[in-house]
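Sequence, structure tokens reproduced for reference:
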Amino acid sequence: MTDKITNWTGADDAMVESAIRRGASRRELLKMLLAGGAAVAAGSVVLGRATNAVAATPVSGGTFKAAGWSSSNADTLDPAKASLSTDYVRCCSLYNRLTFLDKDGVTQMELAESFDSKDAKAWTVKLRKGVTFHDGKDLTADDVVFSLKRHLDPAIGSKVAKIAAQMTGFKAVDKSTVEITLADPNADLPTILALHHFMIVADGTTDFSKGNGTGAFVLQTFEPGVRSVVTKNKNYWKSGKPYLDSFEFIAISDDSARVNALLSGDINFAAAINPRAMKLIGGQQGFELSKTTSGNYTDLNIRLDMDPGSKADFVAGMKYLVNREQIVKSALRGLGEIGNDQPVSPANVFHNPDVKPKAFDPDKAKFHFQKSGLLGQSIPVVASDAATSSIDMAVIIQAAGADIGMKLDVQRVPSDGYWDNYWLKAPVHFGNINPRPTPDILFSLLYASNAPWNESQYKSEKFDKMLIEARGSLDQAKRKEIYGQMQAMVSEEAGTIIPAYISNVDALSSKVKGLEANPLGGMMGYAMAEYLWLEA
């Protein structure tokens, strides 16, 4: 008997794949293969190949049900006001952006065909033709101008008003051309407009309850704080998408309840699983875990303008005292990647891998603490459940300090009021930062001398000048070099310690296919509904 197949063609492969999609059993498939002249061993090879092909080939149809972790009566379908993951997921299903970030963090065109500029200050945007809103209206330049200008109106309450403020001029040149003028050059404009809030809505929209966008799905039901149901947009401009017939999204705040809903078959997807709740999934058949590391982190902030942070050796000592490997293993239960004390994560195309994290070295830490004159003194460290895993991190750092005679007094404070009363204020405290798509946004928000969230009060004229230079340059290689230097400066000079980039873990049915990582966050940057399919 031979393992070779006689007269087997691509059409025969297609026949087997079709049978798999219809739900044929393995025995039935092997009978089919044997009838076609395949030996048993060869038949198994063909069957494996066909099964893999089916799994990788999108299938149309089905209802996808997913649960997030947060919602409120303030849930909105107005992209400008979106503030929770539930808002982002719904807006991504109903609307499109001018651009989007792919899995590698590269900016791709969506509603825009092109972005062009000679000076990074005046931009010309060409729009795709043939795109329509759910109500049948054609997409035009007026829709784009209206959508972007909304963010500048204080009455709207846009969550990205400060970012949008750099856009000072808008002009609809013709139906498919928009000119955008910035106050100062910014080469990141195409990437900035990939943020969830910059979805394009129809000109003049004031009522967002219908979710009238150009997106992959059409709104059927929206109950703020409860659920939303959307159905396939049969006139969607992206050929072949979406694959799903409908998508229902709810929120279940309790981790265990969210996992149980998945295991019981009530939902296909449970977002952002707590490591402790992961045990409920265990080795159960038919379910999977998806890990995404996109730049979220919890950091220890030491204010450089206050004692003890005003003593450089104290800051240096703390950086050597942080056992990053143990924090990932214990505090994060393995769900993280080692951080190097700067905010641009490995998920970002501008990440500088040559900036190495400080090694855990208690002897060096003790040397610097002694030099600072603080060894043996009690130093308050404020932590809270409000900052993800910060209490566990603080206890690990405290124990390492105790071994060398450094007394760190971990003060656990309530989540309620933490961000108003302690974050940015306490001399030594923890923060938690969500992913941002560009180094410019991260540095402008967190490290520029006038940054609104300057957690350690880091100030450097050189850094500020480099930030402006990189922002205005259209030379990507030059920008990468500058941002690489800035990452090194922050890692060495700022009072922020970023032990790890935290991984998000989603749990899903094995029948859910097409899920990929995205630098904008979990659930494929909250845009998963357009790209997923359900295995037949």
About this structure: Confidence is low (pLDDT under 50) at residues 1-6. The first strand starts at residue 63 and ends at 68.
